[in-house]
Amino acid sequence: MQQKPITPQHILQQYWGYNQFRPLQTEIIQSVLDGKDTLALLPTGGGKSLCFQVPAMLKEGFCLVVSPLIALMKDQVENLEKRNIKAKAIYSGLNYKEINLILDNACFDNDLKFLYVSPERLNTSLFLDKLPALPINLIAIDEAHCISQWGHDFRPEYRQIAALREHLPNINIVALTASATKKVVADIVTQLNFNEKNIFAKSFERKNLQYIVRQTENKPEKLLSIINNSNGSGLIYVRNRKQTEEISKFLLLNNISADFYHAGLKGETRNLKQNSWIENKVRIMVCTNAFGMGIDKPDCRLVVHYEMPDCLEAYYQEAGRAGRDEKPAYCLLLHDASDDINAKKKIGVNYPDVNEISLTYQAICDYLQVPVNAKPDRSFDFDIISFVKRYNFDAFKTLSCLKILEQSNLLVLSEAFYEPSKIKIICSHETLYKFQVENEKLDAFIKFLLRSYGGLFDNYVRLNELELANRIKLPVASIYKYLERLHTLEIIDYIKNKELSQLTFTVERQDIKYLALNKKYLVDRKQTYIEKIQAMMVFANPSFICRSRQILEYFNDFSADDCGYCDVCIDKKKILSEQNLSNVMKKEILAIVTKAPISAIELFEQLNKYDLQKFTIVLRLLLDNNILHYNNNYQLICS
């Protein structure tokens, strides 16, 4: 009897336990299986990963996944391995031997299905040398908006992805993102040299989310009121690490189960905090934007932004971590006048002048002792706090200089992450046996390592020195001493645990006299940033346009109706219920406009006895019903 072919539904059921795909997933997966280059725009929580994971599972070989965040890569690899799907990751911070071993194994390991790679690794000589032998069946580009200089998180190393097509002309690409404007979508397709314009876009509308903006001069008290009047777990996004701790303490003092999270915490601590929130042991997590990416918690009921983000893309992505189970959830932005003032100040901080950028580059090279013309691709541990203290730099401006140096394709700075210690035996079985015979003091320790950890001759194996010390009944200092001794004698390769950002030079170290900074590009980027800030400020301030519609129209979706339950829609309903006030105001507006054309600002100045919010809603109703319209001079006239 002929065996039935394995289908995407079989894979979905077998490995993920779901009976059916979400909207658009089936179409995207079929497009990928048909060998077409495909761009998938799905909102946060829309199931983007399955769109490349399922088709890759149906093909021989493995999927090469390009992802910008180490934490996200590690999280996805762990989730796949829990489902008995073999996956590996290569990122800044792994040494040459580790990367070489992963790539060598990938050439011949028929069980490997996913290889995650950070974009800066794609152009290294090591990767390119191995590329012809790698059985790649699909290229998946996660966070694809990073390839566009018009996107909110542009990363120039993403531009190197297109060069892969020359080496892999018969392998199709699937690009995925949760937030991209029309301009960014067009740029993604162009930069990746799509063989045809094949775009699947699910509406950015999240009908279960209630967007609310609250104007307040007392954010702590307003936050307390919001949390006390809501149910379920939530996230509070703040701008800096200090605030995460302060607001968490404030909530705890007010009998609210809360904790804090930021990238400066130790890796094990971050994991514990993250799991406590996921498992509902902690109700509220106060965090920076380092928290949330790749975390699968469908029942988050509340996301509060304590300050205004830099752009609507970031706001939409972070707010979208609420209600991923498609049940009602609340997204609140707390706003006051200082938010707009600080946003304008940040333009100068985020875009320092060329001289400041050059001096930062020189200081980095001095700090890391990298000479002019030093070869690229080597990763350095980089402690940014120590760096800014040594050179007495402003921390925020330094981060901006680093980001611009990244965008100028001169270096890459990864986020800080925890990497446990690892060992691998690097000598032959015969050499090891001889060494054990000749070194009686180390023989017992080596035998214990061999009993405790399998595959030491074949792979790098993680270990915890403290756990090892407890098991072997030795002081932890002795464990470090033994491991370092065996490393020095070239019996093992011992890589100590680390928790620092990794800085990688992507080109030869430059002389700052000839530093390749594109001034026009920097001016264009600054203007794009200003436009994004302005769009965010319009959203955060009082409005007469539905919040959901504002977000959708920013992403060029003009098809949606008012949501009916954001703060604007609720206020509109209240005003409409105050029929007498509404009618009186309509008559006064029409009386003024009938006399002569007038701008909306001048009109409100004449009617400033009314609340601005109520005035704008009534004016919007007159415009929507074609009773009034604007002339070419943006003045109101009667239709």
Plain-language structure description:
With 639 residues, the protein is of the alpha/beta class. The chain folds into five domains: 8-201, P-loop containing nucleotide triphosphate hydrolases (Rossmann fold, 3-Layer(aba) Sandwich), CATH 3.40.50; 209-335, P-loop containing nucleotide triphosphate hydrolases (Rossmann fold), CATH 3.40.50; 344-417 and 500-528, Arc Repressor Mutant, subunit A, CATH 1.10.10.10; 421-495; 567-638, Arc Repressor Mutant, subunit A, CATH 1.10.10. It is 45% helix and 15% strand. It is built from 26 helices and 21 strands. It has a seven-stranded parallel beta sheet, with helices on both faces. Strand 10 (258-261), helix 11 (267-278) and strand 11 (284-287) form a beta-alpha-beta unit.
The number of domains: 5
What structural category do the secondary elements indicate?
A: alpha/beta
Shape: elongated
Distance, first to last CA: 75 Å
Q: Name the CATH class of the largest domain.
A: Alpha Beta
